[in-house]
User: Fold these one by one.
Assistant:
Number 1:
Amino acid sequence: MVIYLKAGGELRSKLQPDVDHYTRRVEAEAGKTLSDILIGIGVSPAFVAFAFKDGQLKRLDYLPSDGDIITLQPPVSGG
C-alpha cells in the first residue's frame, strides 16, 4: 500500500519529502501502525506529537489504509 506523510518545520527535514516540499510517499505493508511505518523510514515516533487524517486526530497506533494522507505534527518546544 502507499500512504502520504506530510510535515512542516524540523519534522519535515527528518521526513525527507519527495512528492513536494512537505510530502513523502511511503510504501508500507498493510497491518503496520503509523509508528511502525515511521520507524521503517528512519523517523523516530518521539518527533511526532500527533497526526491528522481527514481532519481527525489519529494516534501513532493508527493502521493506515492505501492512499491515506496523514499530516504529522511535531511536539511544541520553546521557552
Number 2:
Amino acid sequence: MPLPKLTLEEKKQALKKAQQVRSQRAKIRQDLKAGRTGIREVLEKMDSDVIAKMRVAYLLESLPRIGKVRTRKIMNEIGIDETRRIQGLGSRQRQALIERFGN
C-alpha cells in the first residue's frame, strides 16, 4: 500500500504534531526521573495518545536507577515483549509494573 500524498501544509502540520508529542513524552520522562510523578499515574493516563503509544522500555528507562539492562531484565520477568507499547499491556502486566515500582 503506497503512502498517501501529503501537501506541503499537511506535512508541516504532521511535523508540528510529532514535535509536540516528543516534547510531551520528554516532560513525562523528566517528571518520572525527578520523582514528581509515578508509574501508576502514567499508566492511569493510558487513554492519552502520547502515553498509549510510548514504548514500555522507554517508560521504564525513565525511572531513577533503571537503565537499559535492568529494563530488559524486568520486562523479561514480567513477560513483556521489548517492542510492546503501553497501550498493548495487559491488565496483569500493568498491575505487575505498579506493584514492582510502588507509586
Number 3:
Amino acid sequence: MDAKLLFVILGTGNFLILALLIAYRKTNTDPAIHYHLLSLVMMVISYVFAVTRLVNPLRVFIILNTVPLIVGSYFEAKALASISDVLTPRMDRILAVIMAAGILAYTGHAVFFDFPYIRIVILSATTLLLAAYPTISVLKKRSGSALRLLLGVLFLLICVSSAIRLADGLRLREKLVLFGPAPGEIAMFIMLYMYMIIGGMGVILLAKEKTDARLILLAYHDGYTGTLNRDGFIDSTTRAIGECAYRNEAFSVILIDIDDMDGINEAHGYETGNRIILRAAELLRGEIRSPDFVGRFGGDEFMVFLKGIDRLKFDGVVARIKSALEGAAPEGIRFSASIGAVTFDYPAGRQIDFPLIHDACYGAVKEAKKHGSGGVSMALT
C-alpha cells in the first residue's frame, strides 16, 4: 500500500469521525470535545494536502500539509490537558508558544532550504513537545479509569513514534526517505491509523466520563459548602453502617446544629450567616480523618460519620470539634453549636438504619438545647 492510498484512507476516516463528532457536539459541551473537533478539522485538511503533495511536490503544498498537522497536535494536546484538568492559562500559553515555534521553524526551512530530514526533525520535535506533558498528566491521574489508561498509552505511543522519527532524522540525515521504510516513518503511519480508530472515541468517552462524574458530584454534594448533601450523606452512611456491622467496628454519628442562626441572620445579614455556615463546614472537614465524612443536612445543620469512634473515644473527638467551632469568628462574630450524638460500640447483628440514627441524634440535640447554647447530649442505644 503506497503513501497516497494511506493518506486517502486516513483522511476519509477522520472526515467520517469528524461528521459524527459534530453531531455529538450538540449534546456535549465539554471543552475537550471542542478541542478534539478542531484537531480533527486540522487533520483532515492536512491529509488533503498530503495527497496533493504526493502528486505535486511544490513547497507550498509541503507547508500546507504540515502546518495544519502541527495546529491539530496543539488542539489535541489541549484536549488531553482539559480531560486531566491541567489546562491552565499558563499551560495554554506554553503549548501555543511550542506550536508557533514549530510552525515558524518548519515554514522558514521549507521556504529557504530543501533538506527533508530537517523538516522531519522539526515536525517530530514539535509533536513530541506538544504531547508529552498532557500525556503524562492523563497517565498519572490516580483516579484514572481503564479507558483513561488506554488513551494515555495510545498517546504515549504517539510520543514514542515521534521520538523514533526524530532519531531517524538525526541519524540518517540525507539518507532518510520521506514516507519510506525507516522505522520512524512506519511508526508514524501506524500511530496515525491507531489515532484515527481509538483517539477520537477515547477522547469522547473520557469527556463523557468526566461529565458523568461531575453530575454525580453535583447530585451528592452541597453546592455551597462542598460537603455531602442530604442524599449523599444518607447513601454514604448506609454503606458505612454495612461495612462497620460486617467488621463489628464501632462508629458514631453526630448532628451539629449552629445555635441561633435566625438571630445572626437578622442582626448581621444573611451573607454573614452564610459565611458562618461555610466556615463551620471547613472546620468540620479539617477535624475529621479520611475514612470519616461530613454532610450538610439542612440550612444550619451538619452531620458527621466517625468510624472506629466508640464511647471511650467520643468525648475527645467532640471536645476537639466544639473547640474548633467556638474558636471561629467569621466577620468577628463568634458562634456556638449544639451537638447530639449516637454511638454503636458493637454494631454486628443489630438492625441499624439511617432513620433510627437521625431520630436519635435529633432527639439528643433537642435535649442538649435544653441546657443552653453549645450543649452536648448522647442518645442511648
Number 4:
Amino acid sequence: MNPTLHSSPPGTDTSVVGKYRWTICSLVFFATTINYLDRAVISLLKPYLETAFRWNAGDYANIEIAFKLAYAVGMVGVGRIIDKLGTKLGYAISTALWSLAAMGHALVSSTVGFGVARGFLGITEAGNFPAAIKTTAEWFPQRERALATGIFNSGANVGAIVAPLTVPLIAETIGWKWAFLITGALGFIWLVLWYAIYETPANSKRLSKAEFDYINSDTPVGLPAESAVVEEQPKTSWATLLGFRQTWAFVLGKFLTDPIWWFYLFWLPDFLGKQYHLTGTAIALPVAAVYVLSSIGSVGGGYLPMGFIKRGMPAFQARKTAMLVIAFCVFPIVFAQYLGQLNMWLAVLVIGIAAAAHQAWSANIFTTVSDMFPKRAVGSVTGIGGFAGGMGGIALSALVQKRMFVYYEALGQLNKAYFIMFLICGGIYLLAWVIMFTLVPRMEPIKLDAADVLPTAS
C-alpha cells in the first residue's frame, strides 16, 4: 500500500471516530429501496392493466423495453449531470423526477401513454446508482466503501420484497392508480430527509473532525480532502474517461454481469411456474426467499473484502480476491434444474445463492470505480458502466432469451432453454473477472489533472 496515505492500520477501533457516515448510508439505502419499489409496481399491476387497457404480451414487452432502453441511455447522461451539479442537488433532482414519473402512470389512459411514462421513469431512475456511488466515495474511506455499497445496494432487494406485500393490497382496496400515486409519493418524503441531513463531509456541521479525518484517511499527505474541493475542479469528458483501460474494465464487467440480474427479476417467476406448476400466491414465497438471500449477499459482499483488508491485504487486492470468490459462488446455479428434481427448494436455494453472489459482486464492482477514479469522476464512470449494463440486458433479451425461449417452447422443451441460461449465469462472472483484471491487474489510480495513470503497489 502507498506509504504516503494516512491509512489507519488494520484493526483500528473506528468507534472512536464517530458513525455519522452510516446515517448518510441509510439515506442512500432508502432511496435505492424506493427506486426499486417504483420500478416493480407495474409488474404487480399487470393483471389489472391488462384488463383495463386490453394489453397482450407484446404490449407489455414493448413497455418494459421502453423502460430498459431509457434507463440505459439515462445512465450515461445522468452520471455526467450529477458530477456537474454535485451529489446533493443531482440526487435530489433525480429522485424528484422519478417520483413524478412513477405517480404519472396513474394519469395516462393508453398503452402509448404507459410507454412514455415508463421511458421517463427509466431515464430518471438511472440517477440513483451514479449518485449513490458518488455519495459513498465522498463519505467513506476506501476500506469501507464495499460494505457501504453492499448495504445501500441491498435496498434493491428490499424494494423487490416490499412491492408484492403492498402493491396488490393497495390495488385491491382503493384501485391500481393509487398504487402508483402512493409509492411514487414516498420519494418526496425522502427528499425532505435528504435536504435536512445531507451535506458533503467538508460542509457538514454534524460531522466530527475525527470522523472527517478518518473518511479522508486515503488522501495523500499534503493534499486537501477531495470532498472539500471536488466542485471546484475541472470536469472530465467522456472521451477522456473512455481512454483509460480502468473505465473499460468496469464497463465490460457491467455489460457481462448486469443482464444476469435482469434475468432473475423477469424470468424467475416463469421458471418456477413452468417447472413446478406454481400459480398465483404460491410463487410469492420462493421468489421472496431468493430476494432475502440477495439482501444477505449484498451486505456480505461488502464485508468480504473488509475481512481481507483487516488481515493486512491491500484494498484493491482484497477487492480482486473477493470478486473471484464471489464468481465461484455463482457456479452451482448450473445444477439448479437437477437439484430441483429432488426438491424445489434446493433449486430455489442455489438460485438464491447465485442472486446473492450477484449482489455481492455488484457491491464490489461499483467500488472499483471509487478505488481507481477521483471522486469528481465517479458519477460519470458509474453512468457509463450502467449504460453498458443496460445495453447488455437488452442484447441478452433480444438476441438470446427471446429467440432461444421461443424456439424451445415451440419444441415443448423449455427446460433446455433454462439450462442454457443457467450455464451462462454460472460462467459469466468468471469470464468478467478474467477480463477486468487482465485489463487492470494492479491498483492504478487515475490522476485526471495530468491525464495519466499514477501506479501504486497492488
